[in-house]
């Protein structure tokens, strides 16, 4: 049985990590699945617990910025600026790896390594108590929505890990922004709460990756595979102009329908036809972002099971880029106007 610890029991959790066991920990983004990054056997068990492909690199979590120097040749000036501005925080930086500094289990066999200093005092104290850096992919079954509470972690990984340190619900709600500094052009490989607009003043040349199109290639950052963050229930995205069509469709469909949307959308539909999880108000994309995974998980657990989850799309700007990045992968790029026609349900 996996146990739940509170912040007063960090010594126990740290002992488990030093012994090569798996311990889930809270961050400001999502809960991470922790293992000693210097212990190859422990890191391998992360992949087993998650059912995660071994070519997917892991992010190394540290408690102090200077720890990066143990594993890289140097810290570029731009990295120093970013670390000063955004660490601790939801920004992961990819560096060139010092030869043999970390095992291929951590790097996915690549010559780069990703680091983050999470903005969570409990986990920073846990890393310090362990005395070693921790890998920390999301503490869930691979491909499913990431966990934003300790209960989500235990739902997926009960019996597969030693325990989880409970610090309540996470604030940001989606994984960190991943910025690759190992090549000539700094590139955002995964969008998050640290947006392109926030990075530009410090890194004017930064660009956004269009996403990994070749599914056979090794990803440089987690979450770059095609379908990801997905519940078992089919997720279908709805553009703003398609809600009138949804309203008509709801009148005749025999399906059990979940709605992941803001309050204004919910109010415009027949409430007797849907099960709703609120994304907050339309003018707060950050709220929608923080509720996305919890909503996907909550609606996926409804009994009787839902047939489809209709999810509200957001403008792809600022934090909306991260929101849509996760939603598109959760829905496997299924849009209501196409899905309804293909399934003859409109």
TrEMBL record:
MF (Gene Ontology): ATP binding; double-stranded RNA binding; L-threonylcarbamoyladenylate synthase; tRNA binding
Keyword tags: ATP-binding, Cytoplasm, Nucleotide-binding, Nucleotidyltransferase, Transferase, tRNA processing
Reactions mediated catalytically: L-threonine + hydrogencarbonate + ATP = L-threonylcarbamoyladenylate + diphosphate + H2O
The protein's enzyme class: transferase
Record GO biological process: regulation of translational fidelity; tRNA processing
Domain named YrdC-like: residues: 7-194
Gene source species: Vagococcus lutrae LBD1
Protein family (similarity comment): Belongs to the SUA5 family.
Record Gene3D superfamilies: DHBP synthase (3.90.870.10), Threonylcarbamoyl-AMP synthase, C-terminal domain (3.40.50.11030)
Function: Required for the formation of a threonylcarbamoyl group on adenosine at position 37 (t(6)A37) in tRNAs that read codons beginning with adenine.
Record PROSITE patterns: YRDC
Subcellular localization: Cytoplasm
Binding-site residues, L-threonine: 29, 61, 116, 176
Pfam families, alphabetized: Sua5_C (PF03481), Sua5_yciO_yrdC (PF01300)
Name under which the protein is recorded: Threonylcarbamoyl-AMP synthase
